[in-house]
Amino acid sequence: MNRLSIGYVVPGHNLLASAGPTRNVLCLADALSRWADITVAFRRVLEPIDDREFDVVEIEPGLGHSRPSDDAAVRGTGALDFAAYLRTLRGFVDERLHRHDIVLEKSWLLSGYVTARCRRSGIPAAVVENIVRVWHRPLRTPGDVASYVRHRITQGLVGRYLRQAPLIITETEELRAAISGRWNIPSARLEVIGLGVNTELFRPRDQDAARRALGIDPRATVLLYVGVLDRVHDLAPVLEAMGAVEIEAIELHVVGNGELRGEYESRARSASPGIVFHGRVPHVVVPEYIAAADLCMAPYDPAAFPDGKIGYSTLKIPEYMACARPVVSVPSGHVLQLVRDGVTGFLFSNEAEPWMRFLRSCPPRERLARMGETAAQLLTTSGWDEVARSYLAACQRLVAVQAPHGGIADDGTVTRA
User: Edge-to-edge strand order for the sheet containing 327-329?
Assistant: First the structure.
């Protein structure tokens, strides 16, 4: 008898440990490695990681590694290059994944492709989906039209692959409903398993000490955003509001990188001197920035989600709350399950005018601190070990049903013929 062997394939991301999507994968792999043998496959490994109990491999090794803005591995890839990557990915699946009892495929541009290839080879596989992609940009140029056509083609393929998948793990009930409705997939083949929070790392810390360490004004009211700078997380409204309101006692600090950083920094230069971009920082330093803040932001653009409802199992909001900080976000979808307006944070439309009103009447720091304490007390998000146990149980069930030989023993280990 052996421990379950799980191949966790992440075709749409490179390993960049300070980026959110990478962190989700690594945290789950680390927790799963207590009970199973894990191999995680990213397209490329952009930086090494130490002290891990699981294996990390590259799907497409040997490519030059330029300085990335985030961990996205296929964004902006041309049609010919993408087709070449698919050939490499097929070869990786056929040559490397047969050694595993089950394969998990992380959500990406062509979700379900790896799972379909595995099923063709008789390998149990499941999709881990975290978003339903929708087109929400105007078609102003021929390039926009070409991108829209590619979007429609890839989403048509995603629907076909997902309808064939024996199991789709989604991170929220809202996402489960969106996938089931959009692709006409029976709910019984979708299982909800949320993300976890590392409460040993993300915990309340002394604010004064954090500000001294980071060189942040001890008297300022500090708003903080941590995460990727992309179209889903829209900082434009708060940047515009900061320029219009001109309240010197309020500062906005941005931690992270992404495709829109240059655009946001340009906006900030003409908006307010109280906007600071820190770039990407090591993951272990992120809680220090959260501790230095008074109020943390999750400025989603609901238009990027089906029916305008946030389907993300957003990791940043529980991490903010675990650090005893209130959260400002939008009143939409899964966010409504996490943030209580006026109690653990503030919910309003992510547009310039509501932001201006909020900044003009921003609560005193003392009230924000009390709200943060309440947020930490009311946080119900599970730890990563509990999340990993749910994944392990789902994998064991699928292997027991689909493996051509062997099965699952009473203690959860795998018997192989």
Answer: 275-279, 250-255, 221-226, 295-297, 327-329, 345-347
Q: Helix 173-183 to helix 142-164 angle, to the nearest 10 degrees?
A: 100
Helices (H), 258-364: 261-269, 286-292, 316-322, 335-338, 352-360
Q: Is the pLDDT of residue 412 over 50?
A: no
Q: Which residues of 352-385 are buried (b: 16+ CB within 10 A; e: fewer)?
A: bebbbebbeebbebeebbebbebbbeebebbebe
Phi first, then psi: give them for residue 90, nearest 5 degrees. Answer: -60, -45
Least confident of 5-9, 82-86, 232-236, 410-414: 410-414
Q: What is the pTM of this model?
A: 0.88
Residue 248 in this model has a pLDDT that exceeds 80: no
H or E segment and range at residue 115: helix 113-120
Sorted by where each starts, the structural domains of the chain and their CATH numbers stand as: 4-196+383-415 (3.40.50.2000), 207-378 (3.40.50.2000)
Pairing, β 168-170 against β 190-192: parallel
Terminal alpha carbon distance of the chain: 10
Q: What is the DSSP letter of 28?
A: H
pLDDT band at 64 (very low <50, low <70, confident <90, very high): low
Rounded to an integer, what distance in angstroms lies between the CA atom of residue 303 and that of residue 349? 12
